[in-house]
């Protein structure tokens, strides 16, 4: 563990035997913050990247698209939890209702719930959009980044077993 309770090690301690290997590692961060790069180190990942593909050039979504994508993501999350897996949930997580749903599913399936917050500077997140097939507009990245920063003080009280802050240069964690 590093200063201010921050840790880069996401390996569960041996004392967490109640969870029998089930864990949701929810990644919270602006587009381009490194969530998907970090998630690539895990065998089971549920992502909402389809939202980026479905969004228009201005970052807006067709009516009902977000609900459809999240319903499918939650269905996949349940499938992995039923299979007793450690699964990564890769999405910006700015919506408190989405976080509550993830926590509810973790509780239902007796899974440990870890939240990893990516503190990547907004300028880096915006720069990472340059090479993407479906880049997120800078205004949208900036808005999401600000939403996460505003919500950060309340995250520890939401019921996560652990809240971890990931540095922007975080390699895949195991």
Give the integer mean of the pLDDT values.
Answer: 80
What quaternary form is this? single chain
Largest sheet: 5 strands, parallel
The largest sheet has its strands arranged as: 2-3-1-4-5
Portion of residues in helices?
25-40%
Order of helices and strands: EHEHHEHEHHE
- How big a fraction of the residues is strand? 5-15%
Contiguous helical run count = 6
The chain-level structural class is alpha/beta
- Cα(first) to Cα(last) distance is 15 Å
Shape: globular
Question: Count of DSSP E strands?
Answer: 5
Low-confidence stretches: 1-19, 168-174
Radius of gyration: 16 Å
How would you characterize this protein structure?
It contains 6 helices and 5 strands, in the order βαβααβαβααβ. By secondary structure, the chain is an alpha/beta fold. It is globular and about 40 Å long. The model is unreliable at 1-19 and 168-174 (pLDDT under 50).
Concise account of the structure shown:
By secondary structure, the chain is an alpha/beta fold. It has helices spanning 35-39, 50-54, 65-82, 96-108, 122-127, 138-155, and strands at residues 23-28, 45-47, 86-90, 112-118, 162-166. It is globular and about 40 Å long.
Question: What tags apply to this protein structure?
Answer:
single chain; alpha/beta
SSE blueprint and pairings:
Blueprint: E1 23-28, H1 35-39, E2 45-47, H2 50-54, H3 65-82, E3 86-90, H4 96-108, E4 112-118, H5 122-127, H6 138-155, E5 162-166
Parallel strand pairs: 1-3, 1-4, 2-3, 4-5
Helix pairs in contact: 3-4
């Amino acid at each position: 563990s590093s200063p201010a309770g921050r840790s880069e090690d996401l390996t569960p301690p041996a004392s967490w035997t109640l969870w029998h290997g089930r864990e949701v590692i929810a990644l919270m961060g602006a587009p381009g913050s490194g969530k998907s790069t970090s998630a690539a180190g895990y065998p089971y990942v549920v992502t909402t990247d389809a939202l980026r593909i479905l969004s228009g050039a201005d970052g807006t979504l067709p009516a009902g698209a977000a609900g459809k994508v999240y319903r499918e993501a939650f269905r996949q999350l349940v499938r992995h939890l039923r299979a007793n897996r450690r699964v990564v949930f890769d999405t910006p997580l700015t919506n408190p209702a989405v976080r509550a749903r993830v926590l509810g599913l973790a509780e239902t399936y007796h899974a440990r719930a870890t939240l990893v917050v990516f503190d990547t500077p907004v300028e880096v997140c915006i720069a990472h959009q340059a090479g993407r097939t479906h880049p997120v507009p800078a205004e949208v990245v900036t808005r999401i980044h600000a939403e996460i920063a505003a919500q950060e003080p309340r995250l520890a009280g939401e019921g996560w077993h652990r809240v971890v802050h990931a540095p922007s240069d975080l390699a895949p964690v195991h």
